[in-house]
Amino acid sequence: MTEPAETAETPAPTSCAAHVARARALARNGDTSAATEACIAALRSPDVPVPMGIKIEQLLRELGQDGIADQVRAGLLQVADKTLRDHGDNVEALREVAAICLELGLGARAVELGTAALARTPADPDALRFCYMATLRTDAYPPGGFDVEPVLAASSDPVVFLGGIIKMLATFGRHEDALRLVDRARAAVRDDRDRRVLRRIDDALHGRTDPDSQRADAVMLFDGFAETYDQNLAAIQNNGPAMIDRILKEIALPADVRLDVLDAGCGTGLCAPFLRPYAKLLHGNDLSIGMLEKCRAKNSYDLLTRTDLAAAETYPQGTFDLVVCADVLVYIPDLTRTFTNIFDVLNPGGRFVFTVEEKQQGDGYAVTPSGRISHSEPYLREVLQKTGFASVEALLRDALRTEFFKPVAGLAMAARKA
Hints:
single chain; nine-stranded mixed β-sheet; 18 helices; globular
């Protein structure tokens, strides 16, 4: 493994990243032997950056390959020690080594180095964010948290920055601390956008859901993040499109039949590679114009339209054999109207395949600290039946993504129209 650059994270080589992605897919399919071989192939790549090395070490442990993982860990710690020896006075180096320690389970050392970096640069948002993350993950969170004022004084977007910290605190169960920062964020509100951001955060903390607000906020969110959406999802190990791919293979669509396919809420088109082999016509729609523009640039779809999944009048004309919703329903509380609309545009015998964040305790749906919606399996089955779907053909569970390095429970379903 190479030593990380002093001020920038070395991008992962494609070959190494491809081996790791293959290893993850093989591990999910239960092929531990082939997954281990893919990890070893990744380690043999010409250049293995530290962040990729950490992912490989973690995956090897999941595969039960502790011996190889220990060797990778030793190499990572050597890189960390050398970085401190050569660049110990550099704040970026301190935080980089702190991140390595945190991922390798050396929580006390990570907190020590992270707080040292923050002490040197108290107005650095990355240093402050890391200190919150490190102390929350290691149960070393100090009473009252950290001083946010130097960062807010220098920030061009203080409400959004505080929103990220508030979600982090809520995810780790620090509800009262999160509410205190909401009060601080109110004093930083400058315009209507800030008010909407803060209202969404406050609603999530208090468990409030409003379908109209959820849709409006989703448009604002995705229009703003369209340019960096793919990179952000890669960073949080987004698994939604892969879950769609797995469940499509499980229901075994005929290989010699080409379908009219609707990617409902297509985003930037991350599902298109999985859907194209089945498609005679691949139609993508989304509520965000920014997302549709990213899709158009990729040239992955035959047609693209702007659609609100909860508004039947905005759907494209025609009917489909397969409708897919990946990472979309997490922004819709009550799914009855959306499922009804999708049922109506499916041909007889057509399939509806989707992912949700799974609500694992209790029935119905609930807003999560992130502001997204989780739905329970009984609720999904109830709404599918109520809206006319004849059967659930397949169901699988997996981590949908990570949220502040914690796995988010995901559920994928395939339902069929009679």
